[in-house]
Design goal:
This protein has 7 helices and 7 strands, in the order ββαβαβαβαββααα. The chain is α/β, with parallel strands linked by helices and 207 residues long. The strands form 2 sheets. It has a 5-stranded mixed β-sheet. A two-stranded antiparallel ribbon has the order 1-2. The longest helix is centred in the middle third of the chain and has 16 residues, at 91-106. One of its GO terms (molecular function) is protein-disulfide reductase [NAD(P)H] activity.
Length: 207
């Protein structure tokens, strides 16, 4: 059962980092995952299979790199994409982001993160993006789109990494953060098989 929803994003010890007034579905704890994709990956709406392809169709051509230069969408063909819901003010995000960078550097031909910023201003977003050259991002002028997507997918914790197929927009796993933390050597292969990348065993082990 999913935890109660609140109007704040919480850090790892349960202390609120910053209110997120635009979203009303943010919670403190992530529930353990299943081993398969479906319904959508217990973190999102059942209709996320419809939401994400539409998002990809409308916005994949708008992506920029850390220098805010346009990136052709054709460079993503055949890759897995990680929609990375994050913000510079979020302490758990700042802890996880270096791990995401390391993972991305290990798989440059297979995986690329797309920063879905929940920062409150463009300066903060750009400074955060500049620290992570491997990421792509939607420009801050699309902030309303980022907030709308987070709301439609019922994003409940930050950071959240939703793994998708670039060619189809099909969501594969909403457990990208946990998979990279606990199963970094095998999760990419499992995502290719349209699995969550993390199991109950990974979730429960302490090492």
């Amino acid at each position: 059962m999913l935890p109660s929803r609140t109007s704040a994003v919480f850090c790892e010890r349960g202390q609120p980092c910053r209110p997120l007034s635009h979203l009303s579905r943010i919670s403190t704890v992530s529930p353990p995952p299943s081993t398969s994709v479906g319904p959508l990956l217990s973190r999102g709406q059942p209709d996320a299979h419809l939401q994400l392809p539409a998002f990809f169709h409308d916005h994949l051509s708008s992506l920029v790199n850390y220098r805010c230069e346009a990136v052709p969408s054709c460079t993503l063909q055949g890759k897995l994409i990680g929609l990375y819901f994050s913000a510079s003010w979020c302490h758990p995000c700042r802890i996880f982001s270096p791990r995401l960078d390391t993972f991305t550097k290990r798989h440059p031909e297979d995986f690329v993160p797309i920063f879905i910023s929940l920062d409150l201003n463009e300066t903060a977003m750009r400074r955060y993006l500049e620290q992570h050259p491997a990421w792509l991002a939607l420009p801050f002028k699309h902030q309303a789109t980022c907030l709308d997507l987070a709301d439609k997918l019922e994003i409940q914790t930050l950071p959240t990494l939703i793994v998708c197929e670039a060619d189809t927009g099909r969501p594969v796993s909403a457990w990208g953060v946990e998979a990279i933390q606990k199963n970094p050597c095998r999760c990419l292969k499992e995502w290719r098989r349209r699995r969550s990348g993390i199991s109950w065993w990974h979730w429960l082990k302490c090492w």
